[in-house]
Amino acid sequence: SQTIHQWPATLVQPVGSPLSLECTVEGTSNPNLYWYRQAAGRGLQLLFYSVGIGQISSEVPQNLSASRPQDRQFILSSKKLLLSDSGFYLCAWSPVAGVDTQYFGPGTRLTVL
Amino acid sequence: AQKVTQAQTEISVVEKEDVTLDCVYETRDTTYYLFWYKQPPSGELVFLIRRNSFDEQNEISGRYSWNFQKSTSSFNFTITASQVVDSAVYFCALSDPYSSASKIIFGSGTRLSIRP
Fold first, then answer.
1. Residues of A in contact with B101 (CB under 8 A)
2. Which among A42, A51, A103 is the nearest to B101, CB-wise?
3. Stretch B3-11: mean pLDDT, rounded?
């Protein structure tokens, strides 16, 4: 069966510091991968998605970037965090074939102070 | 344009009551998928159901049921005999047919609180 991992679970970072969040998927090959952000009490905002190694599509211009160095690894980064980067970050995966369900990881709660 | 509307921002009911969460969608496509996800206080989104636009049969899974009506572009979710563990934010979502990556469009969510 497939599982998706995210770490760290929680993170408190000062403004201006770098960020690296990691997401890995097990039990599947060549998945589509996604990064979402959820601000407190708000809905989901798609940040990035990837259909393959090195292929990143950005949905919203911002202070963040994403990379996919391996088939089942998706990384969300920032060189300098802003207060507005605080939120709950969710990684998700879906099978490649056609329209299919997205399955989510446990999330990372980021607080920028 | 693709859009999902969950007009109910928050709902609060007493345990054992039945509750229906509304979802209305907009799409120009004839083939699409609809989804419901549950987000408990822990934060992880849990997939509940996916529905193909050609399948209008209602779905029942234990205390959960879904009513899909293309005529009104609605995909409502009913919890029968609600329990405290049902307290969560529930998201309705719609597939984006113009995406090459199985993107889905989420509604803004409905926060459901079940009081003991």
1. 32, 34, 49-51, 57, 94
2. A51
3. 96
